[in-house]
TrEMBL record:
GO terms for biological process: lipid modification. It is found in: Membrane. It comes from the Eukaryota. This is Uncharacterized protein. GO terms for cellular component: membrane.
Amino acid sequence: FFLWITEYSGIPIDQVNFVITELVALSLAPLFRSLFHPSKSQPEVRHAFGLLVGVCIGYFAFGRQSFHLAGLPAACYLVIRTQSPHNLQRTVLAVAMVYLSCIHVHRQVYDYGSLTLDITGPLMVVTQKVSSLAYSIHDGLTCDEEKLTKNQKYYAIKKIPSILEYFSYVFQFQVLMAGPTVFYKDYLEFINGQNFLKHAQSTDVSNNTD
């Protein structure tokens, strides 16, 4: 659909698609905040909307390759649901890294030297997300809080995410294409509106101090 931009400007279509997806994400972010504000929408609605937009952005940019954006986290979610919290973090990391490495090797074999954008970029972001989540679950369900660092305590997850929560986190449209990686706890607080409450409380404390 946007080939005319490539023909007119000479910019490769993969780069055109990337810029368009980033502009769409930037445009929808303030709408998401206003139309689906936590005070107006249930968390499930915010999860579903973010997931839908993320899936559409991924498919628009990469077509059939976007299957891997679901394949990698699906394999890791199966591990999270079936393995013991005592060792799931290592298994998730191994599964994610093997999956990602296979995609990298495939590109080296069949598309060596290419400068086009491909699915490995978003997959690296997804790999960071699912592995950090796995370690947070491990910390939250198995570790003694006294032995955790301050950051580990803060990001520890004590409940395994539902499939909607998990995939909406993976496909978070604001950061899907190029990151940065967002920790699951921060994402969940954003969805539930707790981050707004924290900001309001910190502002009140600052004003009272002044």
